[in-house]
Specification:
The protein has 3 helices and 5 strands. By secondary structure, it is α+β, with helices and mostly antiparallel strands. The protein has one domain. The longest helix is centred in the middle third of the chain and has 30 residues. 13% of the residues are buried.
C-alpha cells in the first residue's frame, strides 16, 4: 500500500465530506468512460479480418477504435489528475476507495471513504490500510 508522508493538503472531516459530491461525480465520469473502452466483439472481428484479408476498410476501422480508446484513456487520466490535485488519494477506482490526509490528536491519519458509504465514516493510521479502518 502506498503511504504518503508529509502531505501538502490536509482535510478536516467537514472539508472531506464536502468534497464527496464532487468526487462521486468524477468517479461516475470515470465509470462512464471506462465502459466505452471495454472490448467490443466487433473490434475483434475487425482485427481478424485484417489478418485474413488485410482490407483497408477494416484497418481504418481498427485505427479509429484505437484512437478512440487512447482519447478515452487520456480523459480518464485527466480526471485522476484532478482528483490528485485536490489532495485526495484514490486507492481503488472500482469501489471509489479514497483516503483524505488529516490529523487526529496531532498524528497524521487518513479519513477513509468508499462510494457505497453516504459520508466519511472511517479513518485509519497512515501505515494501515482498509482493514485497519476505525469508526469516526
Amino acid at each position: 500500500m502506498e503511504v504518503v508522508l508529509n502531505s501538502e493538503q490536509y482535510f478536516s472531516l467537514e472539508e472531506a465530506n464536502q468534497l464527496l459530491p464532487w468526487l462521486k461525480d468524477k468517479l461516475e465520469n470515470i465509470y462512464s468512460l471506462a465502459s466505452d473502452v471495454t472490448p467490443d466483439p466487433e473490434s475483434g472481428h475487425l482485427i481478424a479480418e485484417i489478418y485474413t484479408n488485410g482490407t483497408s476498410k477494416a484497418m481504418e476501422n481498427v485505427s479509429g477504435v484505437q484512437k478512440e480508446k487512447e482519447k478515452t484513456e487520456k480523459d480518464i487520466e485527466n480526471i485522476l489528475t484532478e482528483v490528485r490535485k485536490k489532495g485526495i488519494i484514490l486507492r481503488n477506482i472500482e469501489n471509489g476507495l479514497s483516503d483524505f490526509p488529516a490529523f487526529r490528536d496531532g498524528e497524521e491519519i487518513f479519513l477513509c471513504w468508499t462510494v457505497e458509504e453516504p459520508s466519511i465514516l472511517y479513518w485509519h493510521y497512515r501505515y494501515e490500510g482498509y482493514s485497519g479502518r476505525k469508526p469516526i
